[in-house]
Amino acid sequence: MGVKETAKSGRDSLQQGIYVVINPLVRLMIRCGVTPNMVTTIGMFGQVAGAALLIRAGYVAGMTGSVPYNLVTWAGVVIILFSLFDMLDGQVARLGNMASKFGAMYDSVLDRYCELISLGGVAYYFMAFGQLWPALITYMAVIGSLLVSYVRARAEGLGIECKVGFMQRPERVVVTCLGVIATGIAGLCGAQWANWILIVAMTIIAVFANITAAARISHCRRVMEGNK
């Protein structure tokens, strides 16, 4: 089994394991009349709350010169908790027989909003106390994240399956959340280099998301040339 197949198998196994844990909650939500679009919307508001905590942390740091790493830690926790709603809404749709074309589109659009909101919070956090080049790296992460999704959507609009690459949205969310949480915890422990953790996380996304976008473009070119 190749590296790609092993990674996919590992991701699928992890996903199925998570479903086993969350399915009782999903069934309870369905009995309470919760719809997939409601879950998706709540998830986005949670992402806004996480980004707001980051923005507040950056603002306080810029005003006082001291970073409130407790807010940074909570921001990461909130973002990763509400990121799980991305799995909940799909399961609510499947187990509740509520899947729809509009729901799929709505979910995809709000996924983009959520990612841009959380990365925007990170960018502001850096900019608020003068760390401009980390903010620029975060901006490159935003570009890569958008292009990974856009290339896939454009390819599928042309009838081409395009899921290649390893820095897809789940990986980007995990790297972002772990980077924010680890930064907060390191800062609370007194580490002067705490922000470097988040800088490294944003660099990983910036580099590999753009590589993934390029790989998808190359994949589409090969498919199109092969169909000539």
3D architecture notes:
- The protein is an all-alpha fold.
- It has helices spanning 3-31, 36-64, 69-83, 85-95, 101-128, 132-157, 169-188, 194-226.
- Helix 1 packs across helix 4 and helix 5 (101-128) runs antiparallel to helix 6.
Short account of what is shown:
The protein is mainly α.
Which keywords apply here?
228 residues, mainly alpha, 8 helices, 0% strand, globular
For the secondary structure, the number of strands is 0
* Main beta sheet strand tally, sense and closure: none
Q: List low-confidence stretches.
A: none
Q: Give me the strand/helix succession.
A: HHHHHHHH
Distance between the termini: 31 Å
Fold topology:
Layout: H1 3-31, H2 36-64, H3 69-83, H4 85-95, H5 101-128, H6 132-157, H7 169-188, H8 194-226
Helix pairs in contact: 1-4, 2-3, 2-4, 2-5, 3-7, 5-6, 5-7, 6-8, 7-8
